[in-house]
Amino acid sequence: MYKIFGPKKLASVIEEVTKPICKQYGYINFKIAANWQQIVGSRLSRICSPISVKFQGEQNIDGVLTIGVENPGFALEIQANANIIIERIATHFGYRAVEKLKLQVIPKRKKQTDKTSKEQQNKAPGVINIKMANALKTIEDEETKEILQSIAKQLP
Q1: Model-level pTM?
Q2: I want to staple 63 with a disulfide (CB 3.0 to 4.6 A). Which of 3, 53, 72, 135 is the partner?
Q3: Alpha-carbon distance 133 to 141, whole Å?
Q4: What CATH superfamily is the domain 10-154?
Q5: How far apart are CA 67 and CA 49, in angstroms?
Q6: Residue 74 above 70 pLDDT?
Q7: What strand order describes the sheet that includes 48-54?
């Protein structure tokens, strides 16, 4: 009997590829980072980025979100919008996942030179990259596979 393969929903394929990331970094951290621009808007997403969410107990409620800011001058703007950011995260998840914001000044990101990007490509893949590669092997559609591979290469 022949097995017929039809088109797959992209959501089911992405779930398999992102599962190792969610296990390592946590579902809430991943979802906030993946949807940061939608949550805070394009202006705030350009000046800050989520670093991590820490929770007191076992439940994923009332956490402390650490936000990285490259320019300390923007920290005041983030503090002024703290309640709005917390409410938008609560709206996104449907419950109050974050209670407080913590700001952290991070060094400015340097643009990668061609030499740096080639060195990173030559590095041995980490555990996450191996798991992603194995998950990508199951995808039969070449175009979808190439898109997901390009996304996987951008991950740390």
Answers
A1: 0.57
A2: 53
A3: 15
A4: DnaA, N-terminal domain (3.30.300.180)
A5: 6
A6: yes
A7: 48-54, 63-69, 98-105
